[in-house]
Amino acid sequence: xxxxxxxxxxxxxxxxxxxxxNQPWEEKAYTEWTQQDVNKIRNHSPWxxxxxxxxxxxxxxxxPDPNSAIGREYRTGGASDHPNAPKVERNDGTFLSPNxxxxxxxxxxxxxxxxxxxxxxxxxxxxxxxxxxxxxxxQSSPYYMLTVSGGPSSEYSxxxxxxxxxxxxxxxxxxxxxxxxxxxxxSLQQVDFYFPREINGKPTIDAKATKVGFYCKLKFSSIHAxxxxxxxxxxxxxxx
Length: 240
Hints:
Layout: H1 2-21, H2 24-27, H3 35-43, E1 48-56, H4 69-75, E2 88-89, E3 95-96, E4 100-109, H5 113-126, E5 143-150, H6 161-167, E6 169-173, E7 177-179, E8 183-186, E9 190-196, E10 198-199, E11 202-203, E12 211-217, E13 222-228, E14 233-234, E15 237-238
Antiparallel strand pairs: 1-4, 2-3, 4-5, 5-9, 6-7, 6-12, 8-9, 10-11, 12-13, 14-15
Helix pairs in contact: 3-5
C-alpha cells in the first residue's frame, strides 16, 4: 500500500512539474502562440494578478457597515445572527451571506513585452489588424504601465486624477521605496497607471528588487497586488 501511494505521489509531482514548466512565453516565439497560450498569459501568468473583494451586494464598498446585519455576516463569513440564515459557498471555500458578493479585479503589468505581444497575437488570431504594430514591440516607454479593470462600472465613474494620486503607488521590495505614478488614464471599465522607470537618472526598480507591491483606491475598493519580479523574466532579463 505504501509503495502504491508513493508511486501515485511521484506521478502527481511529475505532472505538476510538466504543467508548471509549460510556459509559452519561454518556449515559443509570440507568433507561434495559440489561443490557449494567449489566454494563459492574459489570465494566469506572472504579469497578471487578481484581487477579490467581498462587498455588500448592490453597493460596492471596501466593507459593509460593521454594525449592520450585512456587516455582521461579512465579518463572520456568512454567520448571520439567525441560526437558520442561508449561506452560499465561494470558490475558495469561504461561506458568505447571499447579501454579500465577490468582486474580481484584474491588475496587469501592461508595459511588459510579454503583455504587449499577447495583444498583438490576440489580434492576429482573431484575424483583425492590431492597433499595436509588430515593429512597435521593440520600443520601450519611459513608464511602467499597470492597468486595473473589473468590478462594476460604478468603481470608475467620476474618478479623477487627484483622487487616484492620493492612493496609488508602487512599493519596491526589499527597500520599501515608494514610487508615485506620473500619469493616469481613466475609461469606463479601466484605469491605467504610468510609473516612471527612472527618477533623476536612477532606475526606480533596480536589479536588487525582488517584488513590487501595487496599491490604489478606486471609487470604493482599495486594491493591493503583489508582483514577483523573479518570475517576470524573458530570456534571462526582467520584462517589465
